[in-house]
């Protein structure tokens, strides 16, 4: 999660040369080649958990990706009777960025990706279950590309998501690429693997955090209002599909969304905006405390409110900032906003890597 500190001067890849793709299955499509997304490229173990399906290269740094957001996914399923889960956008962005890094920019398949930030902006009212069968078209621009020798050191992706002829979301994320040897040095002295994780705390009621199943709850009660303990279940088939020696970013995004839901009264919280940043890895072997700060939209400014204040029922705009603390140190921050009356997605937050 943290920026692990590439200190070389950023260099842009303007050569137009490409490393051999990692693992692809392509077919001719006119003058362009269609590359399919595999489980290896998306870092998933089950095909059902892969949302981008294929892409074509439009230029040196521009790509068009096709994705599908299934209505009945076991984790990223419906949040109510009308809408799909906006968090599927963040996961699609993450998978797409890794697949392109491998196949188009030469990152080996054993690369460890370090997510530095991720942000999305969407129109939740456009994420209709009725449109779930429609393909999603994602226009991707890769920027701020850094090379280490012939390999990829870091990259930002900026994406626009269209479905059924409508712009439904924008997103961006930046990540670093670490070799297995460098990752071992980086993680030296840290517990190795899921077997070192503390036992999962008891979950809060799934209704409180907007989930339909108790096994998908990633929060546990703490001793202070407006705060929760991160509940880590390394046996979860989606959140921990692959062995990991730290808490994956997907878990932290979900924890932030569940905390936002609980902090605003347990009603359905459809994130229209998500912005995240990471200070360091969230470890498996010690508790992680989540603190929330809730803001109502009030005229030209925002007014902070108590986490236990009742919702006014008007369905207005609300923002929740979630802080993750471990051993007294900050590990991540996620800010989520719910704007139910928005008609077009705003620009996602972009933090320069340079």
From TrEMBL:
Cross-referenced Pfam families: AfsA
Polar residues: compositionally biased ranges: 1-10
Biased composition (Basic and acidic residues): 295-312
Record's compositionally biased regions (Low complexity): 22-34
Residues covered by region (Disordered): 1-34, 295-317
Signal peptide start and end residues: none
A-factor biosynthesis hotdog domain location: 43-174, 208-300
UniProt-listed InterPro entries: AfsA-like (IPR047757), AfsA_hotdog_dom (IPR005509)
Name recorded for this polypeptide: ScbA/BarX family gamma-butyrolactone biosynthesis protein
Naturally occurring in which organism (per UniProt): Streptomyces incanus
